[in-house]
């Protein structure tokens, strides 16, 4: 009888989201350089902030550094956002399309567990929490969209009200035909062009 060779388990591409580690000096310098350049180029998102103030807060927070490094590595192109309604400062994924390294996921763990076949690797809400943040909600997404183009070819899961989620649905946002749409899908659905954007608050 020929020997049956079992193939190795397929690696989970989202393991990167669990691979946070304290950055060494070189890694931190690279991250700060990337964030500083983007901060300058996206000033309308934080009109009354200076990079020096932000950097001083960031260099004393190694856990946040680790989360931001993973967000950056998975395509988030993050920067600081100063929310208009309360001036809270957050780090947010601002890539034009939903982050490349965080797509094809169910909405949350309950949806993933309920799916009987063809399960994806995981869910958006859980991975956002592991990064120390949460999904953007509808109001935050629309505010970002008022300042920049988002999801012209993709879509992003959004934090969903319990009244919708309890009925099996979840919200997502995208832009088509020069218009931003907030719409719904079953929470257990997943698509190669749908990911999620994270918000992580920071105190300065």
TrEMBL record:
Which InterPro entries is this protein grouped with? DUF4256 (IPR025352)
What is the protein's name according to its record?
DUF4256 domain-containing protein
Give the species. Galliscardovia ingluviei
């Amino acid at each position: 009888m020929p020997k049956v060779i079992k193939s190795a388990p397929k690696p989970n591409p989202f393991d990167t989201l669990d691979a946070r580690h304290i950055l060494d000096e070189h890694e931190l310098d690279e991250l700060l350089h990337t964030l500083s350049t983007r901060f300058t180029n996206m000033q309308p998102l934080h009109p009354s902030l200076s990079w020096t103030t932000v950097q001083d807060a960031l260099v004393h927070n190694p856990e946040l550094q680790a989360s931001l490094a993973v967000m950056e590595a998975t395509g988030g192109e993050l920067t600081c956002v100063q929310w208009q309604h309360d001036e809270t400062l957050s780090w947010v994924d601002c890539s034009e399309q939903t982050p490349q390294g965080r797509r094809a996921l169910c909405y949350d763990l309950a949806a993933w567990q309920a799916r009987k076949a063809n399960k994806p690797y995981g869910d958006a809400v859980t991975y956002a929490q592991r990064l120390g943040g949460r999904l953007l909600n509808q109001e935050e997404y629309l505010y970002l969209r008022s300042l920049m183009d988002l999801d012209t070819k993709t879509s992003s899961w959004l934090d969903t009200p319990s009244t919708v989620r309890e009925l099996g649905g979840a919200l997502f946002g995208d832009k088509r035909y020069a218009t931003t749409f907030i719409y719904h899908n079953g929470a257990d659905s997943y698509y190669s062009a749908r990911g999620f954007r994270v918000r992580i608050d920071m105190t300065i």
